[in-house]
Amino acid sequence: MSINSSVGPELEVDLKLDHISLEMFIASQAAFSCIGAFAASSISERLGRRRAFAVAALTFEVGIIIMVSSINYLMLMIGRVALGLGIGFGLAADPMYISEISPAQHRGRLVTWSETGINVGIVIGFLAGYFFSRFPPAHAWRGMFLSGTVMPMIMLVLVKWVMPESPRWLVMKGRLKEAEEVLQTVSPADVDVSQIIVEIQDDIEQTIKDGEKVRWRDLICCPGKGIRVMVIAGVGTASCQQFCGIDAVLFFMLFVMKRAGIKSKDAQFQFMLVLGFIKLFLIPIAGKILDKAGRRPSILYSAAGMAVACFGLSFNFALGDKGIPQLALLMLVMYMASFSLGMGPGAWLVASEIFPTAMRSKGMSLATVCNRAVATLMASTVLSLAKALTWAGYFCVLALINLAVFAFERRYLPETKGKTLEELASHFAQLSGESESFVLTSFAAQEQQPQASQELPTIIGRNLETDANT
Can you tell me the distance from the alpha carbon of 294 to that of 416, in angstroms, rounded to the nearest whole number? Predict the structure, then answer.
């Protein structure tokens, strides 16, 4: 993502791309990653979670190599296909592996580390962009992309010599002895590993039964009003995360800053580094706010903050040559901070909490597809809208979209923090006009799991913080 923020102007100059071609190239990553995420399930089930990471890393590397050696736009897009697929594989494999390998008492901390790692990668990408921006355009964008080969190589080393296989996958394949060895490595010394194996087997059986109760048409066609409102809230919130324009603004940040009057490349990249460190710093703060203040107020304040920031940017751009660059930078900081403190992590957390166990897998898949589809739409129209409406008009439209997001969330988003299925059912019953018992019944008859299994280190899909990282 961070390389996308840096590489656009260099590609535009070197390959003489028009604004539509550049938009399609930048936005296509989200579209192709959606396809990769769909295929990842089959890969991880057949080859294992650990090898799924290797497939993701190798596909990513192939994509980068093709792009770096590209001599025309077609070759560049072919590389983008492979890159997007690799990203999709990784996005799907990461939360699954964390949830299956992590001891329950440390899982939340490990999820935080995962998010921290992503943002460290963003900062490193900004640093690479800053370094290579001093080169001629033909070498600059190739160097920026080439710097992306480092982390996949590290991942391949970790897969080969460090990372154990998921014990849940090993149990599914009947390799109980290997699963027991992995559990003895990752579990506290006083844990009964044999009992964990039994619990994993029970959970797998229950997951299969739950999955058979919910079909895709139950979510897409929504035969009951209760389910319909629930899907609107869960999938809608995941979609709103991208309707806020985060990917669009981040991908075209250099264009925004240049139009705001910041002409120096050094100043542009220095400011992007500041933004990267701000996002990194806000990760632990956002987690505490979501846990203490709740999901609903955090997301509402986030949308409101982004709307104010976009109106501020629109006003500044409307001033033309009299615009104040410092005001534009302040509004960009406000925009990024508002996103990171609410909508960014909160959207996935809400989506994971709002769907009951029986339909969480399909619900999260639908939410992910819609999120990536909206990301593609928003990123593929930035330059076209800015050309048609001016940057002042573009950010005014984006501000209005954020106000619409605020209104949507205020209408449909319940507070999911610490809520039971019955409490959420009561909320959806009020919105849909159905009885609470009918809504509960339409939740595909979610069955209660053994209490002890909630404390196990290897049960997938039960920790909401892990689901939020999906």
Answer: 8
